[in-house]
Amino acid sequence: MTESTADQELARDLGFLEAYTIGVGTMIGAGIFVLPGIVANNAGPAGMISFIIGGVVSLLTALSLSELATGMPKAGGSYYYVNRAMGSFFGSIVGWSMWAGLMFATAFYMLGFGQYLTFFYGNIAVGWSALGMAALLIGVNYRGVKEAGALQNLIVILLIGFILVFLSFGVFNIDWGVFKPFNPNGWGAVASTAATVYVSFIGFEVIATSAEEIKNPGRNLPLSMIASVLTPMIFYVLVMLVSTGVLPVAELAGSNIPVADVASEYLGTIGALMMVVGALLATVSSANASILSAARVNFAMGRDKILTGWLNKIHDKFRTPFRAILITGAVILLLIAIGVGIETLADVASFLYLITYALVHIAVIVMRRAEPEDYNPDFKLSSWAYPTIPLLGSASCLVIVAQMRPLVLLIGGIIIAVGVLWYFGYAASRAIKPSLVGDAIAARDRTPAPNERYRIVIPVANPKTEQHLINIGGMIGGNYGEAEIVAVSVLQVPQQTSLQQSIEYEDERIQRQQELLNGARQTAEQAGLGLRTRAIVGHSISSTVLNVLKEEQAQHLILGWSGKRKRYEHILGSNIDHIVDEATCEITLVKAGQQPVKNIVVLVGTGPNTILAVKRGYDLASSADDTSLTLLMVQTPGTDGHTDPQSKGEGYIHSVAHEAGISSDQYNTEVIVSDNVRETLLEAVEDYDTVCIGATRSTAIRQALFGSIPEEIGEHTDGNLIITRSREYKPRSVTEGIIERLSR
């Protein structure tokens, strides 16, 4: 079998300097040119402390993001980390917050652009200039542009050069007497201003989204993030120092082009022009980056089914996510057109990102306590830093939020409410990310029990198939030393009937249950297998089997299947559907044929359970004499004319067998070249009495639990069918976590 896609790795070709440059390029932007006037008006010269506060909060976030990014390097940034750790409810809140935050930030940058454009055209309204440039950027992103990276690097170099010139001459023109009083409006104003300036610090996360491409990420990623926060923070503080030291606060606060007016005091018109050009470049660059980032957030949310996939459709000609860009652009234009104030735009963007980063810090704690198997960060907060930094970082974000104006809290609260309502109205029934909070509340004990026996649970219900299921269990268990089989029979009674009442009055059904288990014991004795039986009366077969799996701490579940799929409410049957969806152990689905297991074929593909299927095929073949094992693969014809599909298939089969621990003399190979994989497989399996195949889907979907091809083969073959699925990690719900915690 072949798959249309395969997991791809990204080359790690970004060192510390390259990663640092990416971060600085996003941080040295519009805020440094637009905010000094607003900050001076709110906090006076003490506004530079506001920038330090914003920088310190960002440093804490950078450390938490570094751990998450090296443990979960995937597109989506903070949204993905929170969604993975805390589930789709919080993922929806963060996704909407990031999307809206980027739109508010873009509108802020565009108003800053309009303000600085008045240096050349004083009679053009700021709002019209902002609308015109915003529309142009939306059009550019709609069409897509090439070679933007080199232009972005040039802009960053120019901006740093302009700022260094501004500072180098400015420090010699500071009137140190103006800093008395240093903090005219009190420390409360400094704290609330820190919320306003935080919009300048939201760009460092771009480094985290490049984690897969960074060399030695455990070292280079946190160092580059810290450096990319410290560098602009120092620039912001020094620019604020020069600005408030050269121009009186009242004059600075009333200026539309504050940094240009400061530069004109000691560098004349040339200095003012330099800073205006820098501001125009910075605002356009920052706005363009924000529009692109918004499209990436949309993509990540659509991938996780929190947003509709309609939004992420790619343009046939331009290959851009045009719908997401147009909707994002429409909101940006609306914010500018209705006259939202520039300070309010900055504040709301800061609010939304502070809420996002507060949840990012919590996500670190959740991932550490839940310890999912696929979370192995290259960088981990040390023992002295964890959980201090995540807790302090989350608290500091919320403290800054608490200082914000009521209007900002209202707008931000409405956006968060939209995320909540969207989750319950749309995403809850579609989103695929479970929450790990339950496992974080009651962390799992992952220490293996000493000398633990491999335990296989087999629910039995049909006397005609139980012997086959027990024998399959013995074949699999024989490769695990003294494996133990637990045969379970569940007598289901209506909810209206008490279980004790059923035991007393269901004599005939209980007798049949005992006969069924006696047959299981006899089969096990004849085969020399260790077997225990459990006769249970319950209201739900599936729930009872799942409880048995937990009580027995079973490593393996073998389920019998009739070979027929349902077309409506259930897929394989109501009991099997529920058990497969919830069970975490390895599962083998067995359809009993009319012939004994002799001629075994394993269908080899690139799915997640192929190696397991090969192991199970070998288990069956090695448990009896006169059996044969064939590994079969269907290859599509090569399109390049150079690759021989037959040789390619043979090579792949041998590599899979080697990984499964099987030598080449223990199996035969068969490679069939065909354009129609499905029909070829259905034909090929007719030559064998037993077919073994790995589930092609690792999670349940509506159309198939084990994958459409395995289940279709099960419907059509008359022989024995074995479908394997490896163990899966399924986190506890929050309620289960609380109950588990209280019971300790």
The overall average pLDDT, rounded, is: 82
DSSP strand count: 10
Poorly predicted regions: 1-11, 567-573, 698-707
For the biggest β-sheet, the strand order reads 3-2-1-4-5-10-9-6-7-8
Helix content: 55-70%
Largest sheet: 10 strands, mixed
End-to-end gap: 48 Å
Report the structural category.
Answer: alpha/beta
- Under CATH, the topology of the largest domain can be stated as Amino acid/polyamine transporter I
Count of runs of 4 or more consecutive helical residues: 27
GO molecular function, one term: L-amino acid transmembrane transporter activity
Subcellular location: Membrane
Transmembrane segments: 20-40, 46-68, 89-113, 119-142, 154-174, 186-208, 229-250, 270-295, 322-342, 348-367, 407-426
Organism: Fodinibius halophilus
Name a few traits of the molecule.
alpha/beta, UspA, Rossmann fold, 58% helix, L-amino acid transmembrane transporter activity, elongated, 744 residues, 3 domains, AminoAcid_Transporter, AA/rel_permease1, Amino acid/polyamine transporter I, 10-stranded mixed beta sheet, disordered N terminus
